[in-house]
From TrEMBL, chain A:
<feature type="region of interest" description="Disordered">
    <location>
        <begin position="1"/>
        <end position="21"/>
    </location>
</feature>
<feature type="domain" description="ABC transporter">
    <location>
        <begin position="24"/>
        <end position="259"/>
    </location>
</feature>
<keyword id="KW-0408">Iron</keyword>
<keyword id="KW-0472">Membrane</keyword>
<keyword id="KW-0813">Transport</keyword>
<keyword id="KW-1003">Cell membrane</keyword>
<dbReference type="GO" id="GO:0005886">
    <property type="term" value="C:plasma membrane"/>
</dbReference>
<feature type="compositionally biased region" description="Low complexity">
    <location>
        <begin position="1"/>
        <end position="14"/>
    </location>
</feature>
<keyword id="KW-0067">ATP-binding</keyword>
<keyword id="KW-0547">Nucleotide-binding</keyword>
<keyword id="KW-0410">Iron transport</keyword>
<dbReference type="Pfam" id="PF00005">
    <property type="entry name" value="ABC_tran"/>
</dbReference>
<dbReference type="InterPro" id="IPR003439">
    <property type="entry name" value="ABC_transporter-like_ATP-bd"/>
</dbReference>
<protein>
    <submittedName>
        <fullName>Fe(3+)-dicitrate ABC transporter ATP-binding protein</fullName>
    </submittedName>
</protein>
<dbReference type="GO" id="GO:0016887">
    <property type="term" value="F:ATP hydrolysis activity"/>
</dbReference>
<dbReference type="GO" id="GO:0006826">
    <property type="term" value="P:iron ion transport"/>
</dbReference>
<dbReference type="InterPro" id="IPR003593">
    <property type="entry name" value="AAA+_ATPase"/>
</dbReference>
Length: 285, 401
């Protein structure tokens, strides 16, 4: 176990060959706001066609990393690689056809219907002179059906419940028809049933061949639904790997300041964290 | 490194290579037929969700037959409103021309345009009322577009050039210019310089350039107040000699416009309106927040900067030919949105609303007894204010109900 953690920790020495053939990767990327450095020389490769959950304590740089991957926040040093080429070398619209981001709190436009919102996902394929493309209606329709919002397609998004609204946003991302999907805390502010709902949608996207990267807060959900877990701690990658490889008592103590027992999820056999108490070191957080 | 990890990495690498090849093929396909891959994927996906009894073919047929319900409605409503607005604007123009002793009937106007007109009609048409109408329509359209651009990128109904200090800055530049020279050419330079200084101050004052819409508005309000002070200073200095003329520069007026003014606003519109139409594509997703706009490839800060630059030029153009006319830029986009009833910037409708509003307001200061002789800006402020209040009350009622 310990060996796994260390090898993942030294991700900075990621084999360049792997970086070149993988779809989405960070290469010694440093990102921050103003003076503050949030991500510190992080190197990380996201497995293609897998569902990766990014976890870590508050302020560890999860959302920042997602923004860097989606080029909505520029990296200061290092590179973000899409198919081995730095993001900066791709045109932004070309990236938008291959990589979709759902921010944590997207703004719902005034007076927009579900269909109108989902239709926004087609934006990267259009231009000032080609406002509507033959495949648009079909893409919007299938995205709405896949997320089950087709029955409320003419309803105003502002009138939807939180769970339905999140489904509508995910439908927008689906309509973008990208092979990579980045979701920033897609389950926050939802009740437990709708959280599971969203996680199932993530698995569906993965089953469709998409690479899904989601920032999640609930470790048990991450362990149960994701193929891979990336643990961020203080701006660095602390561990990366399959849930059962990554989640252990030492990691929980060190990263989250939590004393816990690792049980087995009776449904899926994945690690299930049963907290005992906060550890002493955790008190400083 | 544990064996399991090494094996896993190896597998992943193989997988990645395989998928790379697949993906290359997919990309080619995609380029040919747009979105074949994703559709097929989602088709299967939808079928899974619907259970085993719903085969892909059924789904496909359904998706294909289902009409795009939003499109016909939106695509009909917009042009229809546009046509109505154009007709109303023409009616307001014709009425302005035909009114009173010096009135020129449409037939007379046509005769003048074809070169067979009589003396008085020609003078009224080409030197008096003609330029007045054209400048009014042009300035109104420019303000309508400027307001829509601005509100779209600030995501704030108050983020319009009048609130943000652009109009006031252009007005101050215009007023200062009159101290040293007069003539439409220098007015244009003065107005543009004033608007640029104003937006430059706003840019510096936010500390983050154009990245924060809310700071943009707060800084803009401060700049607007300063610019107004400059204008008032100039008016106070010059008041003794030619104050009545300068009063028009405080609130905006269409009195005694010439063909030079018409050319100026026409050039500003001819340059900026097509650019604004091109920018509209990116503006369409600005209302979802910068991050999502960036993610969809619309480049939020770049789009905002471009929109603000266009807005500055249009606004300066309008102010140069008609003075700082209030509320058209603020109200026209709201009215346009209220008419079209769908999200997204309605540049064309907004331009037409602006033109119509200014023409009708100008007609009012010529024809309505107790408004006669007032600068047109007084009326636009009054009408715009009343309409905006009405709009806000209606919206608030609807949202609280």
């Amino acid at each position: 176990m310990n060996g796994t953690t260390t090898s993942a920790e030294t991700g900075a020495t990621t084999d360049p060959g792997e970086t070149a053939t993988s779809a989405l990767a960070l290469d010694r990327a440093s990102v921050g706001y103003g003076e503050k450095v949030v991500l510190d020389e992080v190197s990380l490769t996201f497995a293609k066609g897998r569902f990766t959950a990014v976890v870590g304590p508050n302020g560890c740089g999860k959302s920042t990393m997602l923004r860097a991957l989606a080029r909505t926040l520029p990296v200061r040093e290092g590179r973000v690689l899409l198919d081995g080429r730095p993001l900066a070398e791709h045109r932004s619209r070309a990236i938008a056809r291959r990589l979709a981001l759902l921010p944590q709190e997207p703004v719902v436009p005034d007076g927009i219907t579900v269909r109108g919102l989902v239709d926004r996902g087609r934006h990267p394929y259009r231009s000032a002179l080609r406002r509507r493309l033959p495949g648009d209606a079909e893409a919007v329709e299938t995205a709405m059906r896949a997320t089950g919002v087709d029955r409320v397609s003419e309803t105003l998004v502002t009138g939807l419940s939180g769970g339905q609204r999140q489904r509508a946003w995910i439908a927008m991302v689906l309509a973008q028809q990208t092979e990579h999907v980045l979701l920033d805390e897609p389950t926050s502010f939802l009740d437990i049933a709708h959280q599971i709902d969203v996680l199932h949608l993530c698995q569906d996207m993965r089953a469709d061949g998409r690479t899904v990267v989601a920032v999640l807060h609930d470790l048990n959900q991450a362990a149960r639904y994701a193929d891979e877990i990336v643990v961020l701690h203080e701006g660095r990658v602390r561990a990366q790997g399959a849930p059962h490889e990554v989640i252990d008592e030492a990691l929980l103590r060190e990263v989250f300041g939590l004393e816990a027992e690792i049980a087995r999820d009776p449904q899926s056999g994945t690690p299930l964290i049963v907290p005992r108490r906060r550890s002493r070191e955790g008190d400083r957080v | 490194m544990s064996d399991s990890l090494r094996t896993r990495r190896h597998e992943r690498q193989n997988l990645a290579e395989e998928q790379e090849q697949e993906q290359e093929q997919e990309q080619e396909q995609e380029q040919e037929q747009g979105q074949g891959r994703g559709q097929a994927q989602e088709q299967g996906h939808a079928a899974r969700h619907g259970g085993g009894d719903r085969p892909d073919e059924v789904d496909r047929a359904r998706g294909g037959d289902r009409p795009d319900r939003q499109a016909p409605q939106a695509s009909l409503r917009g042009p229809l409103i546009g046509v109505v607005l154009v007709l109303l604007s023409i009616a307001a123009g014709v009425w302005t021309l035909a009114r009173g002793e010096l009135g020129v009937s449409p037939a007379d106007a046509l005769a003048v345009l074809t070169g067979n007109g009589d003396g008085p009609a020609e003078i009224v048409l080409t030197r008096m009322r003609g330029p007045r109408i054209l400048v009014g329509a042009g300035a109104g359209a420019a303000l309508g577009i400027a307001g829509t651009l601005f509100q779209s990128v600030t995501r704030n109904p108050l983020g319009s050039p009048d609130v943000i200090g652009l109009g006031a800055g252009a007005g101050a530049g215009l007023a200062l210019t009159t101290l040293v020279s007069d003539g439409p050419g220098s007015a244009w330079v003065g107005a543009l310089a004033g608007a640029l200084v104003a937006i430059g101050l706003v840019y510096l004052a936010t500390g983050r350039g154009f990245a924060s819409p809310s700071r943009l508005i707060i800084a803009g309000i401060a700049v607007a107040a300063m610019a107004l002070a400059v204008t008032q200073y100039v008016v106070a200095v010059v008041l003794r000699d030619e104050g009545s003329q300068l009063a028009g520069q405080l609130v905006g007026s269409l009195n005694s416009r010439s063909m030079q003014h018409v050319v100026m606003i026409a050039v500003a519109l001819a340059v900026c309106a097509p650019l604004a139409a091109l920018l509209r594509h990116q503006l369409l997703v600005m209302d979802m927040g910068d991050e999502l706009a960036d993610a969809l490839g619309a480049g939020a800060v770049r789009t905002r900067t471009a929109a603000i630059i266009l807005s500055v030029v249009l606004c300066a153009g309008a102010v140069a030919v008609a003075g700082p006319i209030a509320f058209v830029a603020l109200a026209a986009p709201h009215i346009a949105r209220g008419l079209v009833r769908s999200p997204g910037p309605h540049l064309m409708i907004s331009a037409l609303v602006g033109a119509l509003a200014l023409l009708v307001s100008d007609l009012a200061v010529q024809a309505v007894p107790f408004l006669e002789g007032l600068p047109v800006g007084v009326v636009t402020a009054g009408l715009g204010g009343i309409y905006l209040g009405f709009l806000l009350i209606r919206t608030w009622r609807r949202t609280t109900a």
